[in-house]
What does this fold into?
Amino acid sequence: MSDDALGLDEAYSVKTPDDNRRLYAKWAATYESSFVDAKQYRYPKAIAEVFNDVIPPVTRILDIGTGTGLTGMYVTRLRHAVVIDGMDISPEMLAQAKLKTREDGSAVYRALYERDLTKAVPNENAPYEALFSSGTFTHGHLGPECLRNLLPLLANDGWLVVGVNNEHFESQGFAGELDSLVALGAIQTPDIKRIDVYEPGSVHYGDQARVIITRLIN
Ligand SMILES: C[S@@+](CC[C@H](N)C(=O)[O-])C[C@H]1O[C@@H](n2cnc3c(N)ncnc32)[C@H](O)[C@@H]1O
It folds into this structure.
C-alpha cells in the first residue's frame, strides 16, 4: 500500500497504541496532502473556532493528540499570545508539528511531548489553563476512559474542549463516563456541541463530531 492510499479505513482499523504508532509513522509525511487537503477535513479548524468562541482568555494551553499541529496552528491564528504545548504518541507526527509556524514566523508549539495518552501522563510543564483535542478521541485511538488521564494536567478550573467522533461517542459510552466524572465532582456538567468534520463537497461530508466543553472542579 502506498502512503497516498492511507486514509480513514486504516485510521479506523487500528486497535492498540502500537497500531497507532505504526500507522502514523507511515502517514505523517502525507497526512495533510493525502487526507486533510484531499478530503477537506475541517476538524482542526472547527475545534480552534469552538475553543476561541467558548473559552475565556487563557495563556497556557495543551493540545492532546497534536498530530501535525493543525489545531494549534489555527488556535494561534485566533489567539496570538497563547503558549501551546502538544502531546502525541507518534514522534513522526510531532516532527511535522514542530515545523508549524505562527503568522509572525515563530513556532506554534513551545514544547512537544511523545506520550501514550491511554496511560497516566507525566505532568511535565503542567498545569495548563485549558486543553483541546481534535480527531484523537476516535475508533481505536482514545476511548472515554482516557478522559481521566487528562484531568491531572489541568489547573484548578481548567477548561477542556475535546472533540469525539460521533459514532465513537455513542458506541463507547462517553455520556456515561462524563456522568461519572460529574457525579465524582471532578468536572462541571459538560456542554456538548456538534461540528461538521468535513467541508461541504467532501466525500465524507455529513460526518460529525461531538465537542465536549467542560471545566475541572478542584
Ligand atoms: C487523526 S490524527 C489527529 C491529529 C490532529 N489533532 C488533527 O486533528 O489533525 C490522531 C492523532 O492521535 C494520535 N494518537 C493515537 N493514539 C494515541 C495515544 N494512545 N496517545 C497519544 N496520541 C495518540 C496519533 O498519533 C495522531 O497524531
